[in-house]
Write a structure and sequence with these properties.
single chain, about 400 residues, mainly alpha, 18 helices, globular
């Protein structure tokens, strides 16, 4: 057993492949599901339509919290497999559910599945590579996941324009679930031993000697507010996913209302996560070289600019949508691997999986907060103002990181 990307490249590559299927399950919903609410079920309230995102975000956030504890207590592989098993009904509920409540149920299950499966691909890659390549590891992991989100969103848009909103776009999810489950069962090996090896190496240092057994409440306090670096990272993660939750619900409805067709909406929805995903191949290793903090700060600022382009560009909606989505993707690509690597830097291996779970709790709660914010703002001020509010919050979050965060040596 050794730490390092080169030493563990086979298992690392399999985990990248698994996370492609995990991300693809989220991509199923990006283009089609909000329009199912308006066109098939006749829902005219933005807040009701966005309820599926709120359900997904809240459930995934709490599952992230539990998954970190489970990963520290049981094997990573068992939690990963459980995530896929929970996700089996999702595509069937989305494709054939007879009412909006069935769509919400699908998103509750999807939130549990994502919280377990995606969390484990993150923790297992962190375990394998050791401290020197965490940025690269998180870049590759999130590139696979969010690249699949974008490509699946584009593909479902084309399928919906050719065959209708349901059920054909959701056939893809059935394939993703079965492929991910089989690979996890048959080919993935557990990595908790690698984390224990790293912890044993750290015991030889003064940092490692002073690490008693930590309770979850202690880890929550450290990650949420006591440790200023982990606080900075957690609030930035929440606002980052607030943007994603807002765009998930708002963009299909906003661009449809100004005359953009299904294929155009599919492109707008695809560009954001594809640029976000593929960009992390560059920004992940860059976070190892220049540090986490600069990428987080400027990534948040670039996202704020992307919101401004979309919010003020409704006279040329398709161009503004694609341009703004590119900027959102670039900014998020800068932020995402740096945030995860920063948590891994600041948390000791003995409680790192739990700390990553707490960070991912706050980050993915951003989906629900973003959808709730968008629904309330859109009800009173319109969909465009939901975009503007998200931009202002993103800019403020970048300033908090600038003020509070400290770099940790790798």
């Amino acid at each position: 057993m050794q730490l390092g990307l080169k030493e563990n490249w086979r298992q690392f590559s399999l985990l990248v492949l698994v996370n492609t299927f995990v991300g693809g399950m989220v991509g199923l919903e990006r283009t089609v599901v909000p329009l199912i609410g308006t066109e098939e079920f006749g829902i005219d309230s933005e807040l009701v339509i966005f309820s599926f995102i709120i359900a997904f975000g809240v459930v995934k956030a709490f599952t992230n919290l539990v998954s970190g504890v489970l990963a520290d207590r049981f094997t990573r592989k068992k939690v990963l497999i459980l995530g896929w098993i929970v996700g089996i009904p999702v595509s069937f509920l989305l494709g054939w559910g007879p009412s909006w409540n069935w769509i919400i149920l699908a998103n509750i299950l999807l939130g549990i599945s994502q919280g377990l499966a995606w969390s484990m691909t993150v923790n297992m890659k962190i375990d394998l590579v050791g401290p020197s390549n965490r940025g690269m590891a998180m870049g590759l992991n999130e590139a696979a996941g969010y690249g699949a989100v974008g490509l699946t969103a584009l593909l479902t848009g084309y399928l919906a324009s050719s065959y209708g909103l349901r059920p054909e776009p959701f056939y893809i999810g059935i394939f993703y679930t079965m492929a991910g489950l089989l690979i996890s069962l048959l080919l993935i090996r557990d990595t908790r031993g690698h984390a224990q090896m790293e912890a044993a190496q750290l015991r030889k240092t003064s940092v490692g000697e002073s690490q008693p057994k930590r309770t979850l409440s202690w880890v929550i306090a450290q990650t949420t507010w006591k440790n200023k670096t982990l606080f900075s990272v957690s609030q930035a993660g929440l606002i980052n996913n607030l943007n994603d939750g807002m765009s998930w619900g708002v963009f299909p409805l906003l661009f449809a209302s100004v005359g953009v067709g299904m294929e155009g909406i599919g492109w707008i929805k695809a560009v954001y996560p594809v640029v976000w995903g593929l960009g992390q191949i560059i920004t992940g290793p860059l976070a190892d070289r220049v540090g986490r903090k600069p990428l987080i700060i400027w990534g948040m600022f670039v996202q704020a600019i992307g919101h401004a382009v979309i919010g003020f560009g409704t006279s040329s909606p398709l161009i503004a949508g694609i341009t703004g989505s590119v900027l959102l993707g670039i900014g998020t690509a800068m932020v995402y691997p740096a945030l995860l690597a920063a948590v891994s830097d600041a948390a000791h291996p003995s409680w790192r999986a739990s700390s990553v779970g707490v960070y991912r709790f706050w980050r993915d709660l951003g989906y629900a907060v973003g959808a709730l914010m968008a629904g309330i703002v859109a009800s009173f001020l319109g969909l465009t103002w939901a975009v503007h509010v998200a931009g202002l919050l993103t800019f403020g979050s970048g300033l908090i990181v600038w003020w509070k965060m400290e770099e940790h040596a790798n």
